[in-house]
Automatic annotation (TrEMBL):
InterPro entries: HTH_LacI, LacI/GalR-like_sensor, Lambda_DNA-bd_dom_sf, Peripla_BP_I. Residues 3-57 form the HTH lacI-type domain. Keywords: DNA-binding, Transcription, Transcription regulation. PANTHER family: LACI-RELATED TRANSCRIPTIONAL REPRESSOR, RIBOSE OPERON REPRESSOR. It comes from Paraburkholderia kururiensis. This is LacI family DNA-binding transcriptional regulator. It comes from the Bacteria. Gene3D superfamilies: 3.40.50.2300, lambda repressor-like DNA-binding domains. GO terms for molecular function: DNA binding.
Length: 329
């Protein structure tokens, strides 16, 4: 484990502030204390956080923003929020798109290191989030939409369990008995929403044909088409999709097969994308506070840069259930 500024302070018997003053050569420090701190730095092979130093010195900073799928309106809006907040603080943003590909993720994280960015805001795949080690990188990371193990990094997410539970209970209240769900297979978000959706339906004695699929419209279209081709008593009477792209694919399949919503099958999902209120009937969704997610991620990153040793924090924001005609409103 790489030594931290707190480790230097403890070994030298001084405060973190004193170590910071020695590193920046700014502020009163006795010569004997300065020598002791520098000796400990050499002994521990401590390497200061260059990104944080640049931010404190007023140098132009660069933020890396690594998103899963820039085609997804969710990440488009998040990117806008991050860029707005960064611009207001005189920072630049490098935007990278991974397509949920772990190899591209690793490549872009290496790029961030070579560019010596000030910090990174990042939506990781499930595997990357599960094994992420913040100590590997010289810059701080804030995760958005998905979070790694507790305490690893700062993060901003939706309250996925609450949102998926509310969707399930809404369908139960409307009287649907055979509910199906499509959940993205590449993220912690899809897994959290899947677990809560199935659990909530089971508590009401309602069957749940919940499946993991690639988080793209084509995958949802294919799966819904197969469901519609099943025998009538095996067909779902309500379908939920765990992101806006899956919801779009499901809607297209229903329209192409002439399925009436909600008479033949109800439809609901996540993300209040513009089209969901323009079609007839409108589609019931969980509206995420997308801009706030991006804005808060930037705030957490700025605070982390100012106080590198502070405890990690996860902000969990609520979603809003927007009920429309696709579920019988």
């Amino acid at each position: 484990m790489a030594p931290r500024i707190k480790d230097v302070a403890e070994a030298a018997g001084v405060s973190v502030t004193t170590v910071s003053r020695v590193l920046s050569n700014n502020g009163p420090v006795r010569d004997s204390v300065r020598r002791r701190v520098l000796e400990v730095i050499e002994q521990l092979d401590y390497r200061p956080n260059a990104a944080a130093q640049r931010l404190r010195s007023g140098d132009t900073a660069t933020i890396g923003l690594i998103v899963s799928d820039v085609r997804n309106p969710f990440f488009t809006e998040v990117s806008r929020a991050v860029e707005d907040a960064a611009y207001a603080q005189g920072m630049r943003v490098i935007l990278c798109n991974t397509d949920e590909n772990p190899e591209k993720e690793a490549m872009y994280l290496r790029l961030m290191e070579s560019e010596r960015v000030t910090g990174v805001i990042y939506s990781p795949t499930y595997e990357a989030a599960r094994r992420f080690d913040a100590r590997t990188y010289a810059f701080p990371v804030v995760m958005i939409d998905r979070a790694g193990p507790a305490g690893v990094t700062d993060a901003v997410t939706l309250d996925n369990r609450d949102a998926a539970t509310r969707l399930a209970e809404h369908l139960v209240e409307r009287g649907y008995k055979r509910c199906a769900g499509l959940f993205g297979n590449a993220s912690t978000t899809g897994r959290e929403r899947h677990a809560a959706f199935v659990e909530a339906l089971q508590q009401h004695g309602v069957s749940a044909a919940a499946e993991f699929v690639d988080p793209h419209p084509e995958a949802a279209h294919a799966r819904v088409t197969a469901w519609l081709a099943a025998e009538s008593d095996e067909r779902p009477d309500a379908i939920v999709a765990s992101n806006g792209l899956l919801l779009l694919g499901a809607y297209r399949a229903l329209r192409e097969h002439g399925a009436r919503m909600p008479d033949d099958v109800a439809l609901a999902g996540f993300d209040n994308d513009a089209w969901t209120d323009l079609v007839t009937p409108g589609v019931t969704v969980i509206a995420q506070p997308v801009y706030e997610i991006g804005k808060n991620a930037m705030q957490l990153l700025t605070q982390r840069l100012a106080e590198p040793e502070m405890s990690t924090r996860t902000l969990v924001l609520p979603g809003e259930l927007v009920v429309r005609g696709s579920t019988g409103a």
